[in-house]
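Hi Y.,

Following your request, here is the sequence exactly as I used it, all 151 residues.
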Amino acid sequence: MRKKLLLAVAAAATAIAIVPAAAGASKDEAITMVKKAVAAIKTDGADKTYPLISDKAGPFVKDDLYVVVYQLDGKVLAHGANAKFIGKDMIEAQDVDGKLYVKERVELAGKQPSFWQDYKFVNPVSKKVEPKEMYCERVDNTAVCAGVYKL
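Below is the corresponding structure, written out as tokens. Let me know if you'd prefer a different format.
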């Protein structure tokens, strides 16, 4: 009996040891980050919050998790991973499979207060195109989003 217990403990320790230390953000973390951004926008206003969202060292960016804000016409208002997108109309942006992910995202935001969306995007940590799930909440005429990369 003791030998079986020791083997089980050793197996569990080995399984824990092979989990990558830099595992990506969880869906719960994405939801929490979006809710935090939405609360800041509602409390402090967009003019104060959008620069914080777009600051890579700010409170709305953590490893591969970051917030993006889209106007419902597809214009990027804030982007935690790539400031070059801010102010750009991304309505025609396609992922590697040709999916018009921004168009779909803003259409979904126009129909429901919150949702998850699947697409593919470059992971800012790995620099590789990976499957991603984006959680979004509508705030007035915007979609506030954060996503997780699927392993």
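Confidence is low (pLDDT under 50) at residues 2-21.

Thanks again,
Q.
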